[in-house]
Specification:
The chain is an alpha/beta fold. The protein folds into four domains: 83 residues, GMP Synthetase, Chain A, domain 3 (2-Layer Sandwich), CATH 3.30.300; 186 residues, Rossmann fold, CATH 3.40.50; 73 residues, Orthogonal Bundle (Helicase, Ruva Protein, domain 3); 103 residues, Chromosomal Replication Initiator Protein Dnaa, Chain: A, CATH 1.10.1750. Helices cover 50% and strands 10% of the residues.
């Protein structure tokens, strides 16, 4: 290993430590893909170069102690910090401080997002390592149309169905498909320019470009792309100037034959404070929804994710896990993570580890010992839940979905949100839309409140009811009524 390579690796490790200290979003905003961390071991110095003076000054004011601490933790001694500006020629490809995948939490299945900074468009995208690929995507009736559209856009030259807009609830595989498109497109056409970013990253880069008078460079970077992939595009809602800029970029790159794929929790027509022009552009192509997976797809997800973790799960045990999960991949991943941890705790000491850890009914029973009984899934309408809740509490729908703060009305509203999220494919933003809320923050707050009340599970007396019941008993009663409709 050469000295230059060694110091470059040390700089990368310092950048990793700093990203963990600041958090990925903060790191991405200030230390973009042009940032370089270079160590001079003889002078005990660290030089950090960034794209412009605005970033250098801001880092010096806000993050100098954290940068020096990250270097000290890696090197074992104090360093002096030198902040500089390096504005390369647009044709020069620099090694970033962190590659996008290095800032993305590891994940093995559908639905986890990366939080990397907006990367520089590159003609060498084939060297990029994506967290997700289309080959690993588990296809079922709930997502087969979205998967087919993703493959078509990534592989076909003629009429790729761009723009492609994928929407659905959290943890159902939208980000997996988005990164899979980037990976497949880059693999087949390594000379093409690809950019993957979140709506927040696009917004932050646009704001930085305006503040630093580098808007023309920002536009050139976006508008020379062959594929633009934007996750959480609903983040642009209520940001008029960012929407205008995004729409101009959108129009420009599509006129040049580039492909655009967007992901959101909600259908573009349901994203409040999205401009009419942007909504129209989003629905001009193909809009597809990912729904909650059915039982067969959940079973295949359990088996696939277990195999990737080195867990051997008999079919009967896999079926038990399938029956107890709520349909999101994150829920399945959480269960398997707990089972893997339990298996390590219960494993007797041995000199060698087995090739695969066998998960039996005993471990599964231990995992579910303190959890409520599963509820069979079937398609449920939001209106059916609203009618059931209103009927039980003897309240008109306008009060339950409104803003009255009387305790039993708030409880009814929280139960409506809890059951709607549990029994339907609706995301929190979609629930907020049907309830007439400008954003979904109050919906999330209500969901968190009901979870805390479930943990306490104290007896409550509902007006008009003869006796006290616990919240879990009440939810079970209403859940059965909804499912029997």
């Amino acid at each position: 290993m050469t000295t230059a390579t060694s110091t470059t690796n040390i700089g990368t490790r310092i950048a990793h430590r700093l990203a963990k200290s600041l958090g990925p979003k903060r790191f991405a905003m200030w230390f973009d893909q042009s940032a370089r961390f270079e160590v001079d071991p003889h002078a005990h110095a660290l030089r950090v170069t960034v794209a412009n003076k605005f970033l250098a000054d801001g880092i010096g004011r806000q993050f100098k102690p954290q940068v020096c601490q990250a270097a000290k933790e890696e090197l074992g001694h104090d360093v002096s910090l030198d902040l500089g500006v390096n504005t390369p020629s647009p044709r020069v490809q620099q090694s970033p401080a962190l590659a996008p995948e290095d800032q993305t939490p590891a994940s093995t299945a559908l639905g986890s997002k990366g939080s990397s900074p907006l990367p520089r468009p590159s003609t060498r995208t084939a060297t990029q390592r994506w967290r997700h690929s289309l080959d690993e995507f588990v296809v079922g009736s709930s997502n087969e149309l979205a998967f087919a559209a993703a493959v078509r856009l990534a592989e076909h030259d003629a009429d790729p169905g761009s723009p492609l807009f994928i929407h659905g609830g959290c943890g159902l595989g939208k980000t997996h498909l988005l990164q899979g498109i980037c990976q497949r497109f880059s693999e087949r056409q390594p000379d093409r320019r690809v950019l993957y970013a979140t709506g927040e990253q696009f917004t932050n880069d646009f704001i930085t470009a305006v503040r630093t008078n580098t808007l023309n460079a920002f536009r050139r970077k976006i508008r020379r792309l062959d594929l633009l992939a934007v996750d959480d595009v609903h983040f642009l809602a209520n940001k008029e100037k960012t929407q205008q800029e995004f729409l101009h970029c959108f129009n420009e790159i599509e006129l040049c034959g580039a492909r655009v794929v967007l992901v959101s929790d909600s259908h573009p027509k349901l994203i409040k404070q999205f401009s009419d022009a942007l909504t129209s552009r989003c629905v001009r192509g193909m809009v597809v929804r990912i729904d909650t997976p059915d039982e067969d797809t959940r079973l295949r997800l359990v088996e696939a994710l277990a195999e990737r973790r080195g867990l051997a799960i008999p079919q009967a045990v896999a079926q038990t896990i399938t029956d107890r999960c709520d349909g999101s991949v994150r829920d399945i991943e959480g269960m398997l993570n707990k089972l893997q941890a339990l298996s390590m705790i219960c494993r007797p000491p041995s000199r060698s580890l087995p090739a695969a850890t066998v998960i039996g009914h005993g471990l599964v029973d231990r995992l579910f010992r303190d959890q409520p009984n599963p509820t069979p899934r079937k398609p449920v309408r939001y209106d059916a839940i609203l009618d059931t809740v209103c009927g039980f509490f003897a309240l008109p729908p306008v009060q339950v979905t409104g803003r009255i703060r009387r305790s039993h009305v708030v409880l009814a509203r929280s139960i409506l949100i809890h059951l709607a999220y549990e029994l339907t494919p609706m995301s929190y933003p979609e629930i907020a839309t049907v309830m007439g809320r400008p954003n979904h923050s109050t919906i999330v707050t209500a969901a968190q409140r009901i979870k805390k009340q479930l943990q306490a599970n104290k007896p409550i007396l509902i007006p008009g009811q003869p006796a006290e019941v616990t919240l879990s008993q009440l939810l079970d009663k209403l859940r059965r009524e909804v499912l029997s409709v």
